[in-house]
Amino acid sequence: MDRLTALLLTLIASGCLPVAYSVCIAAMGMACVLENLNMLTDGLQTLRQIQPTVFYSIQVRMLRLPNNPSGAFLIRAAEFVDKLEIMVFREPEFHILAGTNLSALSVFEAKFLKRLLIGDGDIALKELSVYSCLLDRIPGTIGNLPLLTDLSFYRCAMRNVSLNAFRKNQRLKSLDLSYNEIDTIVPINAADGNVTLAIEYLYLASNRLQNLDMTAFEGLPNLSMLDLQYNNLVKIAADRTITWANMEMFDVSNNQLSTLDFQWLSAPKLKRLIMNNNLLELLPQRLRRFPNLQLIAVSYNKFVGIDLAPLNGLPMLNSLDVSSNPTCRYIRSSRPVRLPMLDTLYAEFCALNRFNTTGIDLPVVSFISLAHNNFSTIPTLGQTFPSIVSFSLFNNPLPCALLNARAELILSGKLILGPPQDASDCPTGSTTIAPSFRLCCKA
Ligand SMILES: *[C@@H]1O[C@H](CO)[C@@H](O)[C@H](O)[C@H]1NC(C)=O
Ligand SMILES: *[C@@H]1O[C@H](CO)[C@@H](O)[C@H](O)[C@H]1NC(C)=O
Ligand SMILES: *[C@@H]1O[C@H](CO)[C@@H](O)[C@H](O)[C@H]1NC(C)=O
Ligand SMILES: *[C@@H]1O[C@H](CO)[C@@H](O)[C@H](O)[C@H]1NC(C)=O
Ligand SMILES: *[C@@H]1O[C@H](CO)[C@@H](O)[C@H](O)[C@H]1NC(C)=O
Ligand SMILES: *[C@@H]1O[C@H](CO)[C@@H](O)[C@H](O)[C@H]1NC(C)=O
């Protein structure tokens, strides 16, 4: 029998439901909306009359069942659909029984859910997501889902997570544990038999991690993306080298890191390193361990100046963002630095007044933004970097006389100072560099 793709249930199990046969109200996305579905009376008959060739999914606004809308109900629902979404679930226990032939199951708003029990044997489930629940640990029976590829426990109450719990989920590729209360990640150790997991995408954002011993992730050789945003991280380190041969993106934004040393990490394919909104005063040392880095972002930190020297030896670096460091006054390099692929440099919303280009070689750079800074002179970027197409000094305290003298540079489009302005928008003065082309400046 053909099955529809999805069944979306909003369970508001109360009150007396009409017994009459409900009919599909057609909705967007070829959905059949049923106001009521009463499995105690004509529910099955109703489901059987819905044609998979006409509808793509079923949405049930109110479902009436003899018992917990999990377990046996899922097996029955799987006769009609391949994916099931339960919008509101009010029971403390959720059961997935052996023989449940669903490929994807999502349970949203499971505010009372404390236990998830998964039967042993023949469950086809590949994707499982539970949102807003009270689960405080990874269910011990999660290993009964050997085909699972994607798992989320999002906004639940997890605290102490052991990756060893997933040793039987050998196909698990994506694990999302964002918005929990995780403060401890128990590593897989030799006593567990050196288990390795296939996980490639690991989301641990918005938890309570503070001092993270990265050896916790040693058993994940295929990790390609690690999201550690919005924790309380003050330190990340490991006492031995962790090798992630496929790591491409590492995000530690929105933490409390004041230093970062990547001595412990071997990640030859790392492309994006995101460290925004921390307490960094310097670019991390040893970035050369990541020869494929394309993007480095360190906005919203505590830099007092940017020294580009640590970036030397990054042949693929394409984009650098150091914006929104409000105490940052200069860009320079303490040693010669060559960035053969750097295309864009963003250094907006700082207090920059100096860009010393000595020793900085950017052969292909095309755009540099120094908007919203404190420059009173125009750095010689156009001459130093012949490849540059344009650079922005929008909203800097440049003297009006300087703008008049460099009108050609502005009119050619190379120096960007924003669109023409009105004198009333310019608190410190303005000048007209061409007919009806007025710009703010410092009188
Ligand atoms: C499970 O569903 C698939 C279709 O998604 C079907 O091909 C298969 O036969 C079903 N398995 C069982 C045991 O019903
Ligand atoms: C975390 O759980 C493990 C068992 O899974 C236990 O050995 C460890 O002591 C727990 N750690 C904390 C901080 O609760
Ligand atoms: C785990 O790996 C270590 C080093 O790779 C090895 O010495 C040890 O025997 C292994 N343990 C098991 C249980 O396989
Ligand atoms: C990592 O990926 C490779 C290639 O896809 C695969 O052969 C290997 O089994 C994976 N490792 C683990 C621990 O799953
Ligand atoms: C620019 O930087 C170089 C090298 O660090 C230094 O020798 C020079 O004095 C600097 N120039 C200015 C004007 O600060
Ligand atoms: C901008 O530079 C001027 C001197 O040119 C200085 O007085 C002022 O404090 C600077 N502003 C910031 C935010 O650093």
TrEMBL record:
<feature type="signal peptide">
    <location>
        <begin position="1"/>
        <end position="22"/>
    </location>
</feature>
<dbReference type="Pfam" id="PF00560">
    <property type="entry name" value="LRR_1"/>
</dbReference>
<dbReference type="InterPro" id="IPR032675">
    <property type="entry name" value="LRR_dom_sf"/>
</dbReference>
<protein>
    <recommendedName>
        <fullName>Leucine rich immune protein (Coil-less)</fullName>
    </recommendedName>
</protein>
<dbReference type="GO" id="GO:0005886">
    <property type="term" value="C:plasma membrane"/>
</dbReference>
<keyword id="KW-0677">Repeat</keyword>
<dbReference type="Pfam" id="PF13855">
    <property type="entry name" value="LRR_8"/>
</dbReference>
<keyword id="KW-0433">Leucine-rich repeat</keyword>
<keyword id="KW-0732">Signal</keyword>
<dbReference type="InterPro" id="IPR050541">
    <property type="entry name" value="LRR_TM_domain-containing"/>
</dbReference>
<dbReference type="InterPro" id="IPR001611">
    <property type="entry name" value="Leu-rich_rpt"/>
</dbReference>
